[in-house]
Amino acid sequence: MNDFKVLVVDDEKEIRDAIEIYLRGEGIQVIKCKDGIEALEKLEEEEIHLMILDIMMPRLDGIRTCMKIREKRNIPIIMLSAKSEDSDKILGLNIGADDYITKPFNPLELIARVKSQLRRYMNFGNYVVQEDEININGLVISKSSKQVFVDGEEIKVTPIEFNILLLLAENPGRVYSIEQIYENVWNEPFYKSENTVAVHIRRIREKIEINPKEPKYIKVVWGIGYKIEK
Predict the structure, then answer these.
(1) Per residue in 104-137, pLDDT tens?
(2) For residues 197 and 185, what is the distance between their CA atoms, to the nearest angstrom?
(3) What does the pLDDT read at residue 178?
């Protein structure tokens, strides 16, 4: 993993240094910043493949930093928080984070999350298939370019959002449970609360549906899961 660069953003030097030690031990390059403003500047200077972003920071906190990044970048973002309440985790996912981890964290868990996100990100960028497009009632998913269009207008999605859409669109009519979506998209055993998948589904709906409360594409089958119908 020597070619990967991870940007670690935290106002506590001890945490930045500790994460650097863990990741460098795995052969991952690490760049460190102490707040969101420095992080945004560094993104303009370096090719970054993943960010570990603390929520509570001076000048520009992690939430606002993540929102600014998502305006034009789809790199994986792992939110780092001293709080364990579900509301903080949901907020982070709602504004574009791909994953979260709570302080104090287990180094092995952090490394596993980072590697998982990096694999998913690189597969997202390099994955090539023979059949290029799926078209469902104006929703077009280009598998080679990883682009999504609704009625001809490109919709910006993150790698995880794309993979959820692709899973459902490639199997129209099939209902996937929250656990099945998680295990297919995250490629790891289901171990989180259902909020993780539900929040990503809600974000996708907000992007592709005219009225997210009356979705045209992603339908919920109450008590079972989600599906896309042709």
Answers:
(1) 889 988 998 898 888 777 765 543 333 578 888 8
(2) 10
(3) 92
Q: Which long-range contacts (CB under 8 A, 24 or more apart) does 215-220 make?
A: 216/137, 217/136, 217/137, 217/139, 218/168
Helix or strand run (H / E) with residue 187: none
Going by C-beta distance under 8 Å and a sequence separation of 6 or more, which residues neighbour residue 213? none
pLDDT, tens digit, 9 for 90 and up, residues 35-83: 999 999 999 999 899 999 999 898 999 999 999 998 888 889 999 987 6
**What separation in angstroms does the CA of 101 have from each of 52, 108, 114, 178, 213?**
9, 12, 11, 20, 30
Residues 9 and 120 in one domain: yes
- Residue where one domain finishes, among candidates 61, 95, 126: 126
Range(s) of the domain holding residue 148: 133-228
| Overall number of domains in the chain | 2
Cβ 78 vs Cβ 100: under 8 Å: yes
Domain end marker among 96, 126, 156 = 126
